[in-house]
Amino acid sequence: MKRIYVNEDRCIGCRLCEYNCAFANSGMRDMALALKGKTIYPRIHVEGDDKITFAVSCRHCTDPICMKSCIAGAIYDDNGVIRIDKNKCVGCLTCILVCPYGALAKGENGVMQKCELCLNNSCGEPACVKGCPNRAIVYEERGESL
Amino acid sequence: MNEYLIIGNGVAAAAATEGIRSVDKAGTITIVSEEAHPVYCRPLISYYLEKKTDISKMNYRDKDFYERNGCKVFYGKKAVRLDPEKKEVKLCDGTVLPYSKVCIATGSSPFTPDFPGIDTVDKKFGFMTLDDALSLEKAVGKDTRVFIIGAGLIGLKCAEGLRAMTDSITVCDLADRVLSSILDSDCAALMQAHMEKNGIRFLLSDTVERFDKNKAYMKSGRTVDFDVLVTAVGVKANTSLVKDAGGAVNRGIITDEHMRTSLNDVYAAGDCCESRDISSGTSHILAILPNAYMQGFAAGVNMAGGDRIFDNAIPMNSIGFFSLHAMTAGSYDGELIEEKNDRELMKFFVKDGLLKGFIFIGEPSKTGIYTSLIRERIPLDTIDFELLKKGADYMAFSPETRRKKFGGVV
Amino acid sequence: MGVEFIYPEFEVIRNESRCIACRVCERQCANEVHYFCPETGLMMSDESKCVDCQRCVSLCPTRALKIVKSDCSLRENANWKSDTIKEIYKQASSGGVLLSSMGSPKEMPVYWDKLLINASQVTNPSIDPLREPMETKVFLGKKPERIERDEKGRIKCELTPQLELSLPVMFSAMSYGSISYNAHESLARAATASGTYYNTGEGGLHKDFYCYGPHTIVQVASGRFGVHEEYLNAGAAIEIKIGQGAKPGIGGHLPGTKIVGDVSATRMIPEGTDAISPAPHHDIYSIEDLRQLVYSLKEATGYRKPVIVKVAAVHNISAIASGIARSGADIIAIDGFRGGTGAAPTRIRDNVGIPIELALAAVDQRLRDEGIRNNVSLVVGGSIRSASDVVKAVALGADACYIATAALLALGCHLCRTCQTGKCNWGIATQRPDLVKRLNPDIGSERLINLMTAWKHEIKELMGGMGINSIEALRGNRLMLRGVGLTEKELSILGVAHAGE
Amino acid sequence: MRLEGELRIPSGCAIAAVISRVGKRMSGEAVTEAMKPMHDRSNGLGGGFAGYGIYPEYKELYALHMFFDKRDTRKSCEMFLKERFEIVKSELIPTRKMPEIKDEPIIWRYFVAPLKSVVSSLQTDEKEFVARTVMKINSEMNGAFVFSSGKNMGAFKAVGFPEDVGRFYRLEEYEGYSWAAHGRYPTNTPGWWGGAHPFTLLDFSVVHNGEISSYDANRRFIEMFGYKCTLKTDTEVITYIMDYLVRVQGLNLEEAASVIAAPFWSTISAKKDPEEKEKYTYLRTVFPSLLITGPFSIILGFNGGLMALNDRLKLRSMVIGEKDDKVFIASEEAAIRAMEPDAENIWAPSGGEPVIVRVKDGAY
User: What is the ipTM of this complex?
Assistant: First the structure.
């Protein structure tokens, strides 16, 4: 399955991925209209210091503990893509407590959200990957864990 | 063809179903459900009262879950006897269900102390099942005075859930603090203050001596007048099927890490059994949903001939009341390291170079990174724990770890 | 601080209706032009620091930014142009030699633009490169004067070492230190993939890049930085750098601030020390000394590597080239005065040397007049900007071209000409790890490979039009060129007829 | 308007040749006839022939065929020649007056032997000496032009259609074992006799149809070795290249052909025989500037044989046929049929494939 992978040697910490993510999930046509004057709630976030930076988003684990822990049964496996049914989520934050990557966070309305690989938004392919200026984030098939 | 039998219809049962089906698509699965509902999210009953969810959304799995997985479900039936020799289970109506493998996922039941005069109380409820919530919903109105015995997770979630419906809620507990099983006194005080700010009254280090209709006489001498009583003192594991069949049972059913009981072809999962808590090294009941799922799933896989162990159970809770969130995990054993600022309080417990547990109060973010330190037993000297104390961040890990985690399939 | 005489050269124009204050511009600007004002929630800029590298413009996700040249004008006249006046101000304030980067921006004739290429019509068919083979392979090196045969009458096929190029373009010298590790890796990988060569410059060869040795030209310059036996043997050829088009007669100076970590190790000098390349090689004060160095290097490498001698195009370049051709060198590289540099004194860059076109034409003719053109290959650089420049250079007589500025542009360089500051926002001319990272060698090498591929296609297209299907048949084929707007003298030096003749 | 030699004139052409493999001599009539069906390939601005074996009685002497603009030029040129050669015979080349051929220069021939003393004082060999002398006359002596300088062979050329040129030079009266002919279609009209084909140097003669795009690359390279391309024609430069490769560098004809019509690198790398691969790689690497690109079909005449060669893309027509001892080469099959209606085995050699026909040893 294609997943998003990040390479911290290439990440330049520009945080464009966060903005591209927020824009892609805004459903709007223009980034300025979508994001101007707003706090963004991206599903990918850049961590690091002044030397090393890297983007973190859902790893779409083969054995997703968030899904197993969700008290509302709101997190499900859609052919390997781990997704959230926002209608069912009650905001208990158990997923935040268990995700070893810190890949889930509350969205604008307090409901949990996570990277769903842009499969259902206007972008159609991961916006963070498409917009990464240094190819630090890639979307590809990788076999077993490195 | 294997005949799988699952006693119980909660999360552990659903997980066992999924575990079986991940290995064996053919065998038959029979589920015995004491409740008359398809598997639902039991922890959501307080959210139901709060109207944060509704019945339709409380289904744990979609509506064709049983059909898709080829499960036959007996609703409203209780299993009364397990015969591991004959490999059959007898239900309350006399039906006998044979099995090749059975999973006991009977969960727990509320434990109500035998308070004197309890029989005189008219409206008294537990808070364990959807039916409890539905009854409470009917019983409580704007002016209803609610008295909850037990300031644990269930009692407080019940209080929060009812708060929108009534202004009068009193919670008592024998312990000196709220959430005594998961919070230390500092944190409990914080939480208590926050709940009090939100209109919940507490009577701590106190318990009911006797009831007289709608009045409770407390040990401290105080009295509480109420209209509705909720008892949330504790739960006990439903172990009798295994125990009566001669299986090893402590406070919960004893299993190995493959979720096998001491009886042949009998597995157990969920709140009815004990787990080995790797943060404390002791075995006890870890009645939390993630645990139930992981045990159930492992049981299912192993019942179907797969090989899956579940050996890293820890207690962990994410619980919020009136928008103040607490997250806890592991055991509070070892050196205490405390980090706090005006918005957050974080306590770490470190022993033998490992993180054993933590308590966090505030707006959580990426807290799972700490949890993984406990579950995966990551030696703290291999990471930058100083950095982690300031906030959960993958920078604390080695580049090599990051390369594995973010550059590979996990 | 006194009066600031010079108004910022550029203005940052921010379209407030589009700016979402994502602060990407702020994070990307090593010059610290942009900053966020928390009170107003707006992005602000300090234009005096802007060098117009366009990094922020390129990364702004909402295209809210543009950088324009300020129209604040000094009162200039035909004699005292704005730049001239500003230079006076700068020197009056600093007391220093003015430094510049990249090639000279001055308006001097670009002869490439005054040469036009022929095409076949009627009497001779043009050749379609999509249908017919079209060969751009070139061998650089000395060719034997005589065919010799063994006792059985078979031709003895031993050649002195040659460089095989899949197209007549190589990446010219840029040292590790003046450009980044990632830039070097990009060049090395692209040269390997494109079947050509890149050049270490005088910074030595990083151990990581020895694997690209078969496509590496290792340079020996006056500072001899990073030169050792293993280094000499690591490359495919050795280049003795006598001079550079942007600064003939001048040595190099890489400030100690750039001599950090691997750069220092690769150059074999202590961290933090200035790397000063002397103006001349202090063991070459005359042509016979050059011959000694050429043969020393050949001895050191067992006569397995061709030796290139690189000189700047100066007034008597033909005589110099003739001398080099007789020195044992296999290849002469000539760098024209429009060539780039990481840093050069402005006066030198803008006033010393001659255009490469004239130098090339003169040298090629001189070597032919002396009958020694086949003794050496001729590589020219110093602002080769396109495939047509390459074709024109080959038609004038070059065996191959060196490109550097064009390669840097492919890597993202925006010619802001402030390499000397070491704060290259594109990760090219910098050693700051956070900036170096910005050039992903995967992308960099891919873009260079694309450039080479594109040029190769264009060269083939132009060759096909001329009815030539092998680049060898173009070399020195000056009939394929016509001049426009050139004087008789220029035409005679170039050896081409005027258009219409 | 500038004359040929002062500027470069591309041209299209017709070529034809015949050779007897057994050295049987034939008159020039047949090859003249061969040019008739290819009339339209010429435009009357040049025609010419080369015959081999035509001067058996002077076979040890160099036959210099020359044009002079006036008598004085001839006189002064003869003075020059006498300093270098023993002139065994000096005569007008017989021609036939005819209206189709006008403005003829003085057309003379000398049978000469180089003065040994001069050759040795110049520290050169005889052939080199003759070649340099020809080069010197053609580049330095205004009004004088050597258009043929081999032994037991001769070129005959003029402004006009080739079939007329053949009659003009009375070729029916000569007998040779091989003949080559050329009709010219220059795309400019200065019309100078010297510019007609064949072009010769020593016993090499070249007739050529095509326009080579590598001309200036070839010229500027070959001029490094003492050749002076006074005519600026492709034929001239091809002749010099062949002379350089074969006489100076000692390549055989096949090797020389693989330089001027070099196989593509892809062809070379696909060669199975490593020795061959090495040789072709070597030759292409050493002589890149002698690769001739652009369309050409050439017939190279030399003592004892002919070589036909097309450019490597075969951008010009050329066919070959046989009959008995004879081999025919021409731009068009019609020309072959004109020489031998029953010609057999007509085939078109592929691009870059040299076809070398030799008269058997001792038969010429």
Answer: 0.86
Q: Say if CB A36 and CB C41 are below 8 A apart.
A: no
D289 touches C at CB < 8 Å: yes
Which of C28, C41, C439 is the closest to A14 by Cβ? Answer: C28
* 8 A C-beta contact, residue C253 and residue C275: yes
Integer angstrom CA distances of residue D23 from B96, C234, C394, D26: 117, 61, 47, 9
B388: its two tokens: 């982690």
pLDDT score of A145: 46
Question: Do D293 and C136 contact (CB within 8 A), yes or no?
Answer: no
- The hierarchical CATH code for the domain B111-234 is 3.50.50.60
Which of A15, A16, A134 faces C443 most closely, judged by CB atoms? A134
Name the DSSP class of C475. T
Question: What pLDDT is stored for residue A57 in this prediction?
Answer: 95
Contact B350, B330 (CB under 8 A): no
The rounded distance, in Å, linking the Cα atoms of C9 and C50 is 8
Q: How many CB atoms lie within 10 A of CB C26?
A: 18
Give the tens place of pLDDT for each residue, A118-135: 987 766 689 999 999 999
Give the domains, in start order, of chain C with CATH numbers: 10-96 (3.30.70.20), 167-474+481-498 (3.20.20.70)
Contact C91, C464 (CB under 8 A): no
Q: Counting one residue from C and one from D, how many pairs have CB atoms under 8 Å apart?
A: 117
Which domains are seen in chain A, by residue range? 1-57+119-146 (no CATH), 61-114 (3.30.70.20)
| pLDDT tens-digit profile, chain A (146 residues) | 899 999 999 999 999 999 999 999 998 999 999 999 999 999 999 999 988 999 999 999 999 999 999 999 999 999 999 999 999 999 999 999 999 999 999 998 888 999 999 987 766 689 999 999 999 999 999 875 44
Encode C118-147 in three state secondary structure. Answer: CCCCCCCCCCCCCCCCCECCEEECCCCCCC
Hey, is the C-beta of C62 within 8 angstroms of any chain A C-beta? yes
Which of A41, A71, A88, A139 is best to mutate for the B interface (most B CBs within 10 A)?
A: A71
Give yes or no: D13 in active site. Answer: yes
Question: Residues with Cβ < 8 Å from C61, sequence gap 6 or more?
Answer: A16, A19, A20, A23, A31, A131, C20, C22, C24
Render pLDDT for C459-481 as a digit per residue (tens, 0 to 9). Answer: 999 999 999 999 999 999 999 99
Spell out the long-range contacts of D322-328 with Cβ–Cβ below 8 A and sequence spacing 24 or more. D325/D20, D325/D21, D325/D22, D325/D24, D326/D18, D326/D19, D326/D20, D326/D21, D327/D18, D327/D19, D327/D21, D327/D357, D328/D16, D328/D17, D328/D18, D328/D34
Catalytic residue among D4, D9, D13, D253: D13
Q: Do chains D and A touch (3 or more CB pairs under 8 A)?
A: no
C-alpha closest to that of B108 among B327, B329, B284: B284
For residue D211, the chain C residues in CB contact (below 8 A) are: 123-124, 467
pTM of structure: 0.90
Tell me the CATH architecture of domain B3-43+59-107+238-303.
Answer: 3-Layer(bba) Sandwich (3.50)
Q: Is the pLDDT of residue D46 over 50?
A: yes
CATH topology of domain B325-407: Enolase-like; domain 1 (3.30.390)
Residue of A nearest to B42 (CA): A71
Among A82, A20, A31, residue whose Cα is nearest residue A55: A20
Can you give the three-state secondary structure of C216-272, one letter per residue? EEEEECCCCCCCCHHHHHHCCEEEEECCCCCCCCCCEEECHHHCCHHHHHHHCCCCC
Q: How many Cβ pairs closer than 8 A exist between chain A and C?
A: 64
Give the fold, CATH level 3, of D11-358.
Glutamine Phosphoribosylpyrophosphate, subunit 1, domain 1 (3.60.20)
Whole-number percent of chain C with pLDDT over 70: 100
